[in-house]
Amino acid sequence: MKPIALQREQLLAPHLEELKKSAISEPIIRANFESTGGTDVLEWLIEHKFDSMGAHASQYVTTEVRNLKERLEPMTDGGGWLGRGLDPLNNWEPMEWGCFKPDSPRPAWKKATSGEWVKTEGSVKYEHPQGKIGRASCRERV
Measured between alpha carbons, how far is 46 from 70 in angstroms, rounded to an integer? Predict the structure, then answer.
């Protein structure tokens, strides 16, 4: 899986201010975060899950593929910030795993005891690549 390229020069002022309020220094923010959205981040979020669905998923729009895209597409179209560090286990290349915080989060769902999915009152504040095991990342030196 090829991670999307981090566009460090693309950080919108509201995202910069939000990250600064989290007590992250500006040089660290500028080295590890970007403002992004749309198709690039959608593909980054679902690529691992999509690959695990098998060859038929790349040839046909299955119900599972359609449901996954429909659930995430509106949120990624709205944009947000993406934070990733460097991967010490992959020659210090940008991590495949990271955190996307959408400007317009999607509603949260949970599985009821009946087995049905029901919408909760909250929303999913942070998104990570679907089906990809998270790992610690190393922030780039500044």
Answer: 11
Angle between helical axes of 63-77 and 39-52 (0-180°, round to 10):
160
pLDDT in tens, 40-68: 888 888 887 666 666 555 555 677 777 77
Residue from 37, 33, 1, 38 nearest 17 by CA? 33
Task: Supply 86's token pair.
Answer: 């460097």
Q: Give the CA count within 13 Å in the CB-facing half-sphere of 49.
A: 17
pLDDT digits (tens, 9 = 90+) for 92-122: 887 878 899 999 998 888 888 888 878 888 8
Whole-angstrom Cα distance, residue 42 to residue 30?
A: 22
- What is residue 27's three-state secondary structure? helix
What's the rounded Cα separation, in Å, for the pair 25 and 63?
44
pTM of the entire predicted model:
0.76
